[in-house]
Amino acid sequence: xxxxxxxxxxxxxxxxxxxxxxxxxxxxxxxxxxxxxxxxxxxxxxxxxxxxxxxxxxxxxxxxxxxxxxxxxxxxxxxxxxxxxxxxxxxxxxxxxxxxxxxxxxxxxxxxxxxxxxxxxxxxxxxxxxxxxxxxxxxxxxxxxxxxxxxxxxxxxxxxxxxxxxxxxxxxxxxxxxxxxxxxxxxxxxxxxx
Length: 194
Ligand code: S6P
Ligand code: ZN
Prior knowledge:
The protein is mainly beta. It is built from two helices and 16 strands. The protein has a single domain (about 15-190), classed as Jelly Rolls (Sandwich), CATH 2.60.120. The N and C termini lie far apart (about 75 Å). The relative contact order is 0.19. The chain binds D-sorbitol-6-phosphate and zinc ion.
């Protein structure tokens, strides 16, 4: 029949469990980072060697509804960082600038306590506290890394443009200009600049 509109009620393609942020639905990807995947991220090399390489540090669940790199789409994810330290430095993500460096991102805290470490192009670094309900706008041109400063898992959600991409190399080569360490029993930002 000509000009007939397609009418349909379909199953919800994705679901989020608001008690823990878990994402379900078709094509949810689940990359895992173990300590052996995080070479040169932590400062204390001896403490790093003493940890079993297969220990899981963080896990991501993500929905990529369009091809990565395509302009115009959005990606949605959840990251879980397990609690722990390498020496006195808390478990954290690799951290990145976006490949298309002007692309922004939202993060929001779901479970646990942590910090969002942010660094601009001039290597100024600062941290925002993350907790259930915290909301973080990460402007373009800002490197971002998350750190679990608590004793339970840190979970947070994220939404970012499908053409943002990840530039990990800059952080692998030069790191952030500060590290989050436990000093006198509490998290403190310690500068790495001379
Ligand atoms: C993607 C977004 C997050 C991180 C995830 C892991 O732009 O910022 O999904 O990919 O938290 O961190 P990283 O630094 O290993 O990608
Ligand atoms: Zn990002």
